[in-house]
Write a structure and sequence with these properties.
Length: 419
């Protein structure tokens, strides 16, 4: 029996909220808090007659630490689930420390203003020291380790699918299939079709910034950075088919490299269609992906935020998206002195997700693990002081929960490797 404060009410949040309400034996009470309370009220109204979970709502600016701290102290949750924007990770962590509750999120911190001089100075030093230039990394949140440890609180970072489930897959493979893991390839395939000429399946600001950044991978103890979308491979995905995929930088590589230092190479690939890439390159070429404010007709606007307002809301894609996703990890290594390779993955159907919770599969595959990670923390199964990623705990109860709550996984022996 637990009480959870959920911050955010977008597409991923709505899936996490729905799954918490399905899991009412664990989540007996939830409070949905967002800048726009009416959205929270609408979600609560849709769910109240379908669940035993008591649902309340609140208005909150997640960047206002005193107000957020006051809300946490008033509601007295067992944990806070942050499914807002990555820009707000640090302020929510600050409020959790001040109020004395556990913290959970689905994606690591990145700044909204990448031109801020103070942030820029730290970022440029990190680029030089670490060897990759992505705007998002774990260093800002790992810096909270001593604070959470001293407070006796758990901060669980990145319990979405990737990062999140993919890191649990790595821990599971290490525990049950390998004595040593040599390589990890994370493959994210979205075979869905929403019918729009161009749209993003999650927050456009985050999605487009991530995809347009230089790619990078971990090899032999250091980062190798490459131009954006410059490494392409083809792979035949179960229930989806042959797709083009491109090497990207992704946050779980950073955590896995730190926590599994014996792994020689870790890469992340994501599938993209040619139409998506053509649109993205055109938008980047004309400056629409920029985070630098410009003056337009006497007003200051941020180009990528203006673009976000023009694009379809990812939360509205559910009823028109067909097809499946396939996300998983290919591992190579040794067991009992012999070479071994396995592929752990999940296939998720967009239309089935919409029938269940009114969402397309991208939000579903993030929102379900957000609920599961919260369950691990509030139940005490994953509960120790400090700041952690999902690969640092016993993977077995999380893997069991994936099967139970809508993301069943497959272990394939001797898969085709990515060259």
């Amino acid at each position: 029996m637990s009480r959870l404060l959920i911050i955010g009410c977008g597409g991923v949040a709505q899936v996490a909220i729905a799954k918490c309400c399905q899991n009412s034996d664990v989540f007996t009470e939830i409070c949905i808090a967002s800048r726009t309370k009416s959205k929270c009220d609408d979600v609560a109204a849709k769910l109240k007659d379908t669940t035993k979970t008591k649902i309340t709502t609140a208005q909150i600016d997640a960047e206002d630490v005193p107000a957020l701290t006051a809300l946490i102290k008033e509601y007295k949750p067992d944990a806070v689930l942050n499914v807002a924007l990555p820009y707000q990770d640090l302020t929510i962590m600050d409020a959790c420390l001040e109020a004395g509750v556990h913290y959970i999120d689905t994606a690591n911190y990145e700044p909204e203003d990448t031109d801020d001089p103070a942030w820029r100075k730290i970022y440029e030093a990190r680029c030089k020291e670490a060897g990759f230039s992505a705007y998002f990394d774990y260093s800002w949140q790992w810096a909270y380790e001593d604070k959470f440890k001293s407070a006796g609180l758990t901060a669980l970072l990145g319990t979405g699918f990737d990062p999140g489930v993919t890191s649990v897959f790595a821990a599971y493979a290490k525990k049950h299939y390998f004595d040593t893991i040599d390589t990890i390839d994370i493959l994210d395939c979205n075979g869905g079709d929403h019918g729009y000429a161009f749209a993003t399946n999650f927050n456009p600001e985050i999605n487009l910034r991530e995809v347009s950044a230089p790619g990078s991978y971990w090899e032999d103890g250091h980062w190798v950075e490459i131009p954006a979308m410059s490494i392409k491979r083809e792979y035949n995905f179960d229930q989806v088919g042959m797709k083009d995929m491109y090497l990207l930088h992704h946050e779980e590589i950073e955590a896995l490299a730190k926590n599994m230092p014996e792994v020689k190479r870790i890469r992340f690939f994501m599938t993209f269609g040619q139409s998506y890439l053509d649109h993205m390159r055109c938008l980047e070429d004309v400056g629409m992906l920029s985070t630098t404010p410009i003056k337009f007709q006497g007003q200051e606007i941020v180009p990528i935020q203006f673009l976000k307002a023009l694009l379809p809301d990812p939360a509205t894609l559910g009823p028109r998206t067909k097809g499946k996703t396939n996300i998983g990890c290919i591992f190579t290594g040794k067991k009992d002195g012999k070479e071994k390779k396995i592929y752990i993955y999940n296939v998720c159907d967009h239309e089935e997700c919409y029938k269940e919770v009114g969402s397309q599969a991208i939000s579903y595959t993030t929102g379900v693990p957000a609920m599961i990670g919260s369950m691990m923390v509030v139940s005490g199964l994953w509960n120790k002081p400090g700041v952690f990623t999902t690969d640092q705990f016993d993977p077995d109860p999380y893997m069991e929960a994936l099967n139970k709550w809508g993301l069943p996984w497959v272990v394939e022996e001797n898969p085709v490797l990515v060259d």
